[in-house]
Design goal:
By secondary structure, the protein is an alpha/beta fold. The protein is built from twelve helices and 13 strands. The protein has a domain of 147 residues: NAD(P)-binding Rossmann-like Domain (Rossmann fold), CATH 3.40.50. It has a seven-stranded parallel beta sheet with strand order 3-2-1-4-5-6-11, with helices on both faces.
Length: 299
Protein backbone atom coordinates (compact mmCIF):
# COMPACT_ATOMS: atom_id res chain seq x y z
CA UNK A 1 0.00 0.00 0.00
CA UNK A 2 1.15 3.52 -0.71
CA UNK A 3 -0.23 6.98 0.01
CA UNK A 4 -1.75 8.70 -3.03
CA UNK A 5 -2.69 12.38 -2.93
CA UNK A 6 -5.02 13.51 -5.74
CA UNK A 7 -5.75 17.10 -6.74
CA UNK A 8 -8.82 17.54 -8.93
CA UNK A 9 -10.43 14.45 -7.44
CA UNK A 10 -13.98 15.43 -8.35
CA UNK A 11 -13.12 15.95 -12.01
CA UNK A 12 -13.66 13.46 -14.82
CA UNK A 13 -10.16 11.97 -14.65
CA UNK A 14 -9.66 12.62 -10.95
CA UNK A 15 -12.62 10.48 -9.88
CA UNK A 16 -11.25 7.57 -11.87
CA UNK A 17 -7.77 8.00 -10.37
CA UNK A 18 -9.31 7.86 -6.88
CA UNK A 19 -11.29 4.70 -7.72
CA UNK A 20 -8.27 3.01 -9.28
CA UNK A 21 -6.03 3.85 -6.33
CA UNK A 22 -8.61 2.59 -3.83
CA UNK A 23 -9.10 -0.62 -5.83
CA UNK A 24 -5.35 -1.22 -5.48
CA UNK A 25 -5.63 -0.86 -1.71
CA UNK A 26 -3.90 2.50 -1.40
CA UNK A 27 -4.52 5.18 1.20
CA UNK A 28 -6.00 8.09 -0.75
CA UNK A 29 -6.23 11.75 0.20
CA UNK A 30 -8.50 13.52 -2.27
CA UNK A 31 -8.53 17.30 -2.56
CA UNK A 32 -11.98 18.28 -3.78
CA UNK A 33 -14.01 21.36 -4.53
CA UNK A 34 -16.28 22.20 -1.62
CA UNK A 35 -19.38 22.10 -3.82
CA UNK A 36 -18.62 18.62 -5.20
CA UNK A 37 -17.57 16.60 -2.15
CA UNK A 38 -20.31 14.01 -2.60
CA UNK A 39 -19.65 13.23 -6.28
CA UNK A 40 -16.72 10.81 -6.00
CA UNK A 41 -18.97 7.76 -6.37
CA UNK A 42 -16.66 5.41 -4.46
CA UNK A 43 -17.90 1.90 -3.60
CA UNK A 44 -18.22 1.20 0.12
CA UNK A 45 -16.39 -2.14 -0.06
CA UNK A 46 -13.22 -0.80 -1.68
CA UNK A 47 -10.01 -2.24 -0.18
CA UNK A 48 -8.31 1.15 0.15
CA UNK A 49 -9.09 4.06 2.46
CA UNK A 50 -10.30 7.50 1.43
CA UNK A 51 -10.03 10.89 3.11
CA UNK A 52 -11.46 13.96 1.40
CA UNK A 53 -10.10 17.43 2.02
CA UNK A 54 -11.33 20.77 0.66
CA UNK A 55 -9.22 22.30 -2.09
CA UNK A 56 -7.30 25.19 -0.59
CA UNK A 57 -6.59 23.46 2.71
CA UNK A 58 -3.03 23.87 4.00
CA UNK A 59 -0.93 20.93 2.70
CA UNK A 60 0.75 20.84 6.13
CA UNK A 61 -2.42 19.22 7.44
CA UNK A 62 -1.41 15.99 5.71
CA UNK A 63 1.89 15.88 7.57
CA UNK A 64 0.78 17.20 10.94
CA UNK A 65 -2.86 16.14 11.09
CA UNK A 66 -2.73 12.77 9.33
CA UNK A 67 0.92 11.82 9.85
CA UNK A 68 1.42 11.10 6.16
CA UNK A 69 4.91 9.60 5.82
CA UNK A 70 7.49 10.63 3.26
CA UNK A 71 7.23 9.05 -0.17
CA UNK A 72 3.62 9.83 -1.12
CA UNK A 73 2.54 9.70 -4.76
CA UNK A 74 1.07 13.12 -5.62
CA UNK A 75 -1.17 13.22 -8.71
CA UNK A 76 -2.27 16.51 -10.24
CA UNK A 77 -5.23 16.24 -12.60
CA UNK A 78 -6.68 19.63 -11.63
CA UNK A 79 -6.68 22.73 -13.81
CA UNK A 80 -8.19 23.68 -17.14
CA UNK A 81 -7.92 20.96 -19.79
CA UNK A 82 -9.62 23.02 -22.48
CA UNK A 83 -10.70 26.61 -23.01
CA UNK A 84 -13.60 27.76 -20.91
CA UNK A 85 -15.49 30.98 -21.60
CA UNK A 86 -14.47 33.74 -19.18
CA UNK A 87 -11.61 31.84 -17.50
CA UNK A 88 -7.95 32.82 -17.69
CA UNK A 89 -5.90 29.63 -18.31
CA UNK A 90 -2.67 31.17 -17.01
CA UNK A 91 -4.13 32.22 -13.68
CA UNK A 92 -6.08 29.01 -13.06
CA UNK A 93 -3.39 26.53 -14.11
CA UNK A 94 -0.35 28.23 -12.59
CA UNK A 95 -1.98 28.64 -9.19
CA UNK A 96 -2.84 24.95 -9.05
CA UNK A 97 0.58 23.78 -10.22
CA UNK A 98 2.38 25.92 -7.65
CA UNK A 99 0.18 24.50 -4.89
CA UNK A 100 0.98 20.94 -6.01
CA UNK A 101 4.72 21.61 -6.10
CA UNK A 102 4.58 22.96 -2.57
CA UNK A 103 2.56 19.94 -1.47
CA UNK A 104 5.09 17.54 -3.01
CA UNK A 105 7.90 19.37 -1.23
CA UNK A 106 6.14 19.32 2.16
CA UNK A 107 5.36 15.61 1.86
CA UNK A 108 8.80 14.74 0.47
CA UNK A 109 6.88 12.96 -2.27
CA UNK A 110 8.42 10.10 -4.19
CA UNK A 111 6.74 11.47 -7.32
CA UNK A 112 4.69 14.42 -8.50
CA UNK A 113 2.65 13.18 -11.47
CA UNK A 114 1.15 15.87 -13.69
CA UNK A 115 -1.41 15.25 -16.43
CA UNK A 116 -1.16 17.48 -19.47
CA UNK A 117 -2.46 17.55 -23.04
CA UNK A 118 -0.37 16.85 -26.10
CA UNK A 119 1.61 19.99 -26.87
CA UNK A 120 1.59 20.58 -30.62
CA UNK A 121 3.29 23.14 -32.77
CA UNK A 122 0.43 25.65 -32.47
CA UNK A 123 1.52 27.68 -29.45
CA UNK A 124 -1.70 29.58 -28.68
CA UNK A 125 -2.39 31.11 -25.26
CA UNK A 126 -3.89 27.90 -23.86
CA UNK A 127 -0.96 25.73 -25.01
CA UNK A 128 1.59 28.25 -23.76
CA UNK A 129 0.01 28.18 -20.30
CA UNK A 130 0.32 24.38 -20.22
CA UNK A 131 3.93 24.46 -21.38
CA UNK A 132 4.78 27.07 -18.73
CA UNK A 133 3.37 24.85 -16.00
CA UNK A 134 5.41 21.87 -17.14
CA UNK A 135 8.61 23.92 -17.17
CA UNK A 136 7.88 25.00 -13.61
CA UNK A 137 7.42 21.39 -12.50
CA UNK A 138 10.60 20.26 -14.25
CA UNK A 139 12.60 23.00 -12.53
CA UNK A 140 11.01 22.52 -9.09
CA UNK A 141 13.53 20.03 -7.75
CA UNK A 142 10.90 17.43 -6.79
CA UNK A 143 10.84 14.01 -8.52
CA UNK A 144 8.32 14.37 -11.34
CA UNK A 145 6.45 12.65 -14.13
CA UNK A 146 4.52 14.43 -16.86
CA UNK A 147 1.96 12.38 -18.75
CA UNK A 148 0.76 13.75 -22.08
CA UNK A 149 -2.50 12.07 -23.01
CA UNK A 150 -4.78 12.10 -26.00
CA UNK A 151 -8.44 12.99 -25.22
CA UNK A 152 -9.93 10.63 -22.64
CA UNK A 153 -13.41 9.15 -22.82
CA UNK A 154 -15.73 7.44 -20.38
CA UNK A 155 -19.01 8.05 -18.52
CA UNK A 156 -19.41 11.76 -17.89
CA UNK A 157 -16.81 12.88 -20.44
CA UNK A 158 -16.94 15.99 -22.63
CA UNK A 159 -16.27 14.02 -25.81
CA UNK A 160 -18.54 11.03 -26.45
CA UNK A 161 -21.31 12.14 -24.10
CA UNK A 162 -21.43 15.43 -25.96
CA UNK A 163 -21.88 13.55 -29.23
CA UNK A 164 -24.50 11.25 -27.69
CA UNK A 165 -26.51 14.12 -26.21
CA UNK A 166 -26.48 15.88 -29.57
CA UNK A 167 -27.63 12.71 -31.35
CA UNK A 168 -30.43 12.26 -28.83
CA UNK A 169 -31.71 15.72 -29.73
CA UNK A 170 -31.28 15.55 -33.48
CA UNK A 171 -29.72 13.35 -36.21
CA UNK A 172 -28.38 16.52 -37.85
CA UNK A 173 -25.04 16.53 -36.06
CA UNK A 174 -22.47 18.73 -37.83
CA UNK A 175 -19.71 16.79 -39.58
CA UNK A 176 -16.41 18.59 -39.87
CA UNK A 177 -12.66 17.90 -39.96
CA UNK A 178 -13.48 14.22 -40.37
CA UNK A 179 -9.96 13.30 -41.47
CA UNK A 180 -8.43 14.49 -38.19
CA UNK A 181 -6.51 11.58 -36.59
CA UNK A 182 -7.16 10.72 -32.94
CA UNK A 183 -6.13 8.14 -30.38
CA UNK A 184 -8.85 8.47 -27.72
CA UNK A 185 -8.00 6.75 -24.43
CA UNK A 186 -10.43 5.20 -21.95
CA UNK A 187 -10.31 7.14 -18.69
CA UNK A 188 -9.77 3.96 -16.66
CA UNK A 189 -6.65 3.23 -18.67
CA UNK A 190 -5.42 6.80 -18.17
CA UNK A 191 -5.91 6.52 -14.40
CA UNK A 192 -3.84 3.34 -14.34
CA UNK A 193 -1.05 5.07 -16.26
CA UNK A 194 -1.00 7.99 -13.81
CA UNK A 195 -0.47 5.56 -10.92
CA UNK A 196 2.39 3.81 -12.71
CA UNK A 197 4.07 6.67 -14.54
CA UNK A 198 7.83 6.68 -14.95
CA UNK A 199 10.11 9.60 -14.29
CA UNK A 200 10.23 12.15 -17.10
CA UNK A 201 7.80 12.94 -19.90
CA UNK A 202 5.72 10.18 -21.46
CA UNK A 203 2.93 10.11 -24.04
CA UNK A 204 -0.01 7.71 -24.03
CA UNK A 205 -3.02 7.16 -26.25
CA UNK A 206 -5.45 4.54 -27.51
CA UNK A 207 -5.89 2.99 -30.93
CA UNK A 208 -5.74 5.33 -33.92
CA UNK A 209 -9.06 6.41 -35.41
CA UNK A 210 -10.23 9.36 -37.49
CA UNK A 211 -12.64 11.94 -36.04
CA UNK A 212 -15.20 11.04 -38.70
CA UNK A 213 -14.93 7.38 -37.70
CA UNK A 214 -15.57 8.35 -34.06
CA UNK A 215 -18.83 9.99 -35.16
CA UNK A 216 -19.78 6.95 -37.24
CA UNK A 217 -19.04 4.52 -34.39
CA UNK A 218 -21.11 6.62 -32.00
CA UNK A 219 -24.01 6.70 -34.44
CA UNK A 220 -23.85 2.94 -34.92
CA UNK A 221 -23.77 2.28 -31.18
CA UNK A 222 -26.71 4.64 -30.65
CA UNK A 223 -28.73 3.10 -33.49
CA UNK A 224 -28.66 6.37 -35.43
CA UNK A 225 -27.66 7.56 -38.90
CA UNK A 226 -25.53 10.65 -39.42
CA UNK A 227 -27.29 13.14 -41.65
CA UNK A 228 -24.84 16.03 -41.60
CA UNK A 229 -24.56 18.84 -42.47
CA UNK A 230 -20.97 18.53 -43.67
CA UNK A 231 -19.04 21.70 -42.89
CA UNK A 232 -15.83 22.81 -44.57
CA UNK A 233 -12.83 23.76 -42.44
CA UNK A 234 -13.28 27.38 -43.52
CA UNK A 235 -16.92 27.37 -42.36
CA UNK A 236 -15.99 25.82 -39.02
CA UNK A 237 -13.41 28.53 -38.32
CA UNK A 238 -15.89 31.26 -39.27
CA UNK A 239 -18.48 29.81 -36.90
CA UNK A 240 -15.87 29.56 -34.15
CA UNK A 241 -15.06 33.24 -34.47
CA UNK A 242 -18.73 34.15 -34.08
CA UNK A 243 -20.04 31.58 -31.61
CA UNK A 244 -16.89 30.37 -29.84
CA UNK A 245 -17.79 32.04 -26.55
CA UNK A 246 -21.03 30.04 -26.19
CA UNK A 247 -20.91 26.90 -24.03
CA UNK A 248 -23.08 24.98 -26.53
CA UNK A 249 -20.09 24.34 -28.75
CA UNK A 250 -17.61 23.46 -26.00
CA UNK A 251 -19.78 20.41 -25.27
CA UNK A 252 -18.39 18.79 -28.41
CA UNK A 253 -14.90 20.17 -29.03
CA UNK A 254 -13.07 23.27 -27.73
CA UNK A 255 -15.01 25.44 -30.16
CA UNK A 256 -12.87 28.53 -30.22
CA UNK A 257 -10.85 29.55 -33.23
CA UNK A 258 -7.61 28.51 -31.51
CA UNK A 259 -9.23 25.26 -30.33
CA UNK A 260 -10.40 24.37 -33.82
CA UNK A 261 -6.96 25.03 -35.28
CA UNK A 262 -5.44 22.81 -32.60
CA UNK A 263 -8.09 20.14 -33.26
CA UNK A 264 -7.30 20.21 -36.99
CA UNK A 265 -3.75 18.96 -36.28
CA UNK A 266 -5.11 15.86 -34.58
CA UNK A 267 -4.24 13.99 -31.41
CA UNK A 268 -1.52 11.45 -32.09
CA UNK A 269 1.40 10.46 -29.90
CA UNK A 270 4.82 10.11 -31.45
CA UNK A 271 5.87 7.31 -29.09
CA UNK A 272 2.96 5.63 -27.35
CA UNK A 273 4.20 4.13 -24.08
CA UNK A 274 0.84 2.77 -22.97
CA UNK A 275 1.49 -0.93 -23.56
CA UNK A 276 4.99 -0.61 -22.17
CA UNK A 277 3.71 0.94 -18.94
CA UNK A 278 0.74 -1.39 -18.36
CA UNK A 279 1.86 -4.53 -20.25
CA UNK A 280 -1.43 -4.73 -22.16
CA UNK A 281 -3.22 -2.94 -24.98
CA UNK A 282 -5.66 -0.10 -24.25
CA UNK A 283 -9.39 -0.63 -24.21
CA UNK A 284 -10.98 -0.21 -27.63
CA UNK A 285 -13.44 2.55 -28.36
CA UNK A 286 -15.92 0.08 -29.85
CA UNK A 287 -15.97 -2.03 -26.68
CA UNK A 288 -16.86 0.98 -24.55
CA UNK A 289 -19.49 2.32 -26.95
CA UNK A 290 -21.37 -0.99 -27.16
CA UNK A 291 -21.14 -2.02 -23.49
CA UNK A 292 -20.96 1.05 -21.26
CA UNK A 293 -21.70 4.25 -23.18
CA UNK A 294 -24.86 5.82 -21.67
CA UNK A 295 -26.21 6.69 -25.14
CA UNK A 296 -25.87 3.21 -26.68
CA UNK A 297 -28.91 1.56 -28.20
CA UNK A 298 -30.50 -0.87 -25.74
CA UNK A 299 -32.78 -3.55 -27.12
Amino acid sequence: MKVVVVAGATGFVGQQVVREALARGHQVFAFVRADRVTTLGVESDTPGSLTTLPWGADPEILRQGFNVPSGAWVVNVAGLHRERPGLNPNKANESISQTMIEMAEILEASRLVHLGPLLGSEMDAFTKSKESIEHRIQESGVPWSIVHSTPAYGPGDDLLDGIGAWMARSPFIPRFMERVPMQPLWVGDLAAVLLQAREGVQEVGGDRVLWGEVLEQCAQAAGKHLLGPVLSDTTVLRLARVFGHHSLFTDLIPFTEAGCIRHSHGYEVSQNLFSELLSRPPRTLADYLHTEWPYRYKK
